[in-house]
Design a protein that fits this description.
Blueprint (H helix, E strand, L loop, with lengths): L4 H11 L3 E5 L3 H14 L3 E6 H6 L3 H14 L4 E8 L2 H10 L3 E4 L6 H15 L5 E6 L3 E2 L14 H11 L3 E4 L4 E2 L12 H11 L3 E3 L7 H9 L2 E6 L1 H17 L5 H22 L8
Parallel strand pairs: 1-2, 1-10, 2-3, 3-4, 4-5, 5-7, 6-8, 7-9, 9-10
Helix pairs in contact: 2-4, 2-11, 4-5, 5-6, 6-7, 7-8, 10-11
């Protein structure tokens, strides 16, 4: 069933678990993610990051595809525009049928972030779509820049931001970065910041950059109040690993046979995160 993130995240907040949001960019990745969620009876969020929507699947093309896949499933499926930095693209995604959007105005100061996010919150009301906002800033591990103290979310700013914008979910920065970490590296999370923000806001909180964070960090995040976990790189890496394995085993493999197996193989990574997030069996 096709839904916004609002209801699933409200229940996750009440039930102390998290819903997985997996970055996709075409029918195969979206279908794999939804199938994995269906298998474990878990609510799921299909994330389409702005770069992918611009370069691979515009909103008018991908929204009907994901919506049809969701309608065929018996678990809750939300389609979320992840890290939307362009107001025009955010509004277009909502018009084209996205059930949720995430406003990334973290490049602005607090006042500018509130202003842009609030504008999208008001616009989304006519579509009954949910809106996620971000306060704080994540680093980019592939560029060698990791989250430092200055980039972490200020709890008092988080409360003001959530109150003045009226968002449904709040993305915070507690130590993660986007991209692939160096082999063997596990980020150090600031759980005290997480606990403080949860105590102040009592709302669904979001962890970005979940890939490579380590199982124990993910479990503690859920325990202390994270209700949505974004994973991109780990899922894409699982797809690539399947392709490499199949080509090594059979260099002459038919393309469509290979891609079908990629969908099957990549589901295991999604299932792993669903279990870590404690959302198995939590769909309506």
């Amino acid at each position: 069933m096709y839904v916004s993130m609002r209801g699933m995240l409200e229940r996750a907040n009440q039930g102390n678990y998290a819903v997985m949001a997996i970055n996709c960019f075409n029918i195969e990745t979206a279908r794999a993610v939804i199938t994995a969620a269906q298998t474990l009876r878990a609510p799921i969020i299909v994330n389409i990051v702005q770069e992918h929507m611009v370069n691979h699947c515009d909103s008018n093309l991908i929204a009907p595809v994901v919506k049809k896949l969701a309608e065929r499933a018996s678990v809750e499926v939300a389609l979320n525009f992840d890290h939307g930095e362009d107001i025009g693209l955010l509004k277009k995604a909502l018009v084209d049928g996205y059930s949720s959007v995430m406003v990334d105005a973290s490049r602005y100061d607090l006042e500018g972030n509130i202003k842009m996010t609030k504008e999208i919150v008001e616009f989304a009301k006519q579509f009954d779509a949910s809106v996620e906002g971000e306060i704080g800033c994540m680093g980019a591990s592939e560029g060698g820049n990791y989250t430092d103290e200055a980039m972490k979310t200020n709890p008092d700013d988080a409360l003001r931001f959530a109150t003045e914008t009226g968002i449904d979910a709040l993305a915070i920065s507690i130590g993660t970065s986007h991209g692939n970490y160096p082999e063997g590296y596990v980020p150090e999370f600031d759980f005290e910041v997480l606990k403080k923000i949860k105590e102040l806001t009592h709302m669904p909180l979001v962890l970005h950059g979940g890939s490579g964070s380590g199982d124990e960090n993910i479990k503690k995040c859920v325990e202390y109040g994270i209700n949505k976990i974004n994973v991109g790189c780990d899922f894409m890496n699982a797809n690539v690993a399947s392709i490499k394995r199949q080509l090594e085993e059979n260099p002459d493999i038919n393309y469509w046979v290979m891609m079908h197996q990629v969908e099957i193989d990549s589901q295991e990574l999604v299932k792993k995160y669903i279990r870590l997030s404690k959302s198995e069996g939590k769909s309506l």
